[in-house]
Amino acid sequence: MISYETSFPVRYYECDPMGIVHHSNYIRYFEICRDQMIADWGYGMEKCAADGLVFPVVSVNVKFRHSLYVGDTARVVASIQDLPLAKLTVHEVVYNQNGDVCAEGDVVLGFMNSETGRIMGCPPKFLEVLKTGEK
Questions:
Q1: Structural domain boundaries, residue 47
Q2: What phi and psi values does residue 129 have, to the nearest 5 degrees?
Q3: Active-site residue among 16, 35, 51, 82?
Q4: Can 16 be counted among the known catalytic residues?
Q5: What are the pLDDT digits (tens) for 101-113?
Q6: Per-residue three-class SS string for the chain
Q7: Digit-coded pLDDT (tens) for 16-32
């Protein structure tokens, strides 16, 4: 299993007038964690783009459990159970500073060649990057 974790403060602009994080921001939190994960493993989005690789979102499934508020600290954990062939599924959980699960879900990503616009299998270079994070 591959796992990665990051934390950051909840910002005012991410919240509604009641100080509660708007539901759309949880998907952004998922993306922040995924992007930092592969960047920390040495193959960030800029390098992927330079290699002609983009990751279209195929689906997102989120369950909301507990609210995050302005001033809270969001902790996001991303995990990958299986190395991808054609699609990458990332399970992500957002916690508050007390360890309460605020949201959890699965994001399914495809692999696409940005030059041709064609869907492709998992590139060997990206697979090697994932294996560096495998435990």
A1: 2-133
A2: -60, -45
A3: 16
A4: yes
A5: 999 999 999 999 9
A6: CEEEEEEEECCHHHECCCCEECCHHHHHHHHHHHHHHHHHCCCCHHHHHHCCEECCEEEEEEEECCCCECCCEEEEEEEECCCCCCEEEEEEEEECCCCCEEEEEEEEEEEEECCCCCEECCCHHHHHHHHHHEC
A7: 999 999 999 999 999 99
Q: Which two tokens stand for residue 119?
A: 């869907």
pTM (two decimals): 0.92
Q: For the chain, what is the domain count?
A: 1
Residue in the block written with tokens 């983009």: 54
Please give the Cα distance from 38 to 23 (Å, whole number).
Answer: 25
| CA dist., res. 5 & res. 75, Å (int) | 7
CA distance 92 to 28: 11
One-letter amino acid identity for 9? P
Amino acid at the residue 64: F
Amino acid, single-letter form, for residue 4: Y
Which CATH number belongs to the domain containing residue 107 in this structure?
A: 3.10.129.10
